[in-house]
Amino acid sequence: MSALAEVSEFPLRNNRTDDETDSVFLLSRRQTSIRTSGVVEEFDSAFDAAEALKTGRIDSVVGALPFSPETPSALTAPLSFTRVRGDLYHSNIPSLPTSRVAGFEPSPQIHTDRVRGAIERLRAGELDKVVLARSLTIEAESTIFPAALAEKLIALDHAHNGFCVDLSPAGGKYRGRSLVGSTPEVLIERRGGVVTCHPLAGSIARHPNSDQDEANAEQLRASTKDLAEHAFVVDSISAILGPLCTSFNAPSAPEILRTPQLWHLGTKIEGVLIDPSLTSLELAMALHPTPAVCGTPTVAAREHITATEADRGFYAGAVGWCDRTGDGEWMVAIRCAEIAADGLSARAYAGGGIVATSDPEIELRETSTKFRTLLSAFDLAEHQL
Question: Is residue 48's pLDDT more than 50?
């Protein structure tokens, strides 16, 4: 493991020693990472978890918020909470079982038809932007261990981003399931009274030829369609977060960020809270879902998604942590897969923002590129998508 200096570990006030303390959460980030284990208490309501933190009944909470606020959350007050300086990368990369892509939901053709349908509504002025997603199923010859997949994704990511969340607190069909991924997008981070967001919206595929790769980046930088899509996200976050801050800064133009698969438009937003008692979990609840994963207007876009797609579950939700001081970090749950309780299959998700000038075939290719984050971990990146 890379040199990881422990920053802090909260001595939680729970003496449970039963067998139901094996839940594991991890979030790997370049500057500060989190590992937890065990269960003090489970929450399927983010509001209940936030209240338990506020009253001091629990010392920290970790887990995932679903895409739809009406569905259960998967949040845990852990038995052990350890914060470390640096990422969680180590060079001893685990192997994953031999796997195959078993199917798509929906098919590529149906996805492009759905994009065309959304474009008609966008051109009619019923929506400004909507994010449409599709999924694929990976079937494995033996068990996919969530922590092993997370470790491999962390190793493959240029910034060593990665997460692993036990979804059991959501109950029902989620018992035993895990959400694992490598997201580049920060929904909200709180350190003391300072809050930051780093939304990503608007992207183009990387190219193995360096000259073409730079040309792609410049094409994205000048793209009217992608700049408009990005502006919807920044404006939405500013409208929600700005009034909560004494000072607030959202740059007028995005920067270009790279991941192994994509160039992204990104804007780093920062503010100082008026009320320092607002926790990172409460801020995440207020901001989610942003137009980066839903669309705008939010209610109309979410209704279109619900009527068009299968249940997203925790894809395009948020993954993160909050400690007893209110500090924490929540990432947008993209570039991820939900692993079945038996570990023999996983469902990966990818989506893209649709605006009136979108091209359905280009949007399909964008989702194919985004799938490669997960498929690369299974050595399936060259699969026809």
Answer: yes
Active site residues: 129, 185
CA dihedral 246, 250, 251, 256 (to 10 degrees): 140
| Residue 383 located in a structural domain | no
Q: What is the pTM of this model?
A: 0.91
Q: How far apart are CA 385 and CA 383, in angstroms?
A: 6
Range of the domain at 292: 5-377
| Total domains present in the chain | 1
128 in a structural domain: yes
pLDDT at 78: 97
How many CA atoms are closer than 13 Å to the CA of 356, on its beta-carbon side? 10
Q: Are 128 and 353 in contact (CB under 8 A)?
A: no
DSSP string over 24-68: EEEEE-SSEEEEEES-SEEES-HHHHHHHHHTTS-SEEEEEE-SS
237 in any annotated domain? yes
CATH number at residue 108: 3.60.120.10
Query: Which H helix or E strand runs over 154?
Result: helix 146-156
Closest CA to 291 of 373, 228, 336, 358: 228
**CA dihedral angle for residue 46, residue 52, residue 54, residue 59, rounded to 10 degrees:** -110
Residue 385 lies in a domain: no
Q: pLDDT, tens digit, for every residue of 283-314?
A: 999 999 998 899 999 999 999 999 999 999 99
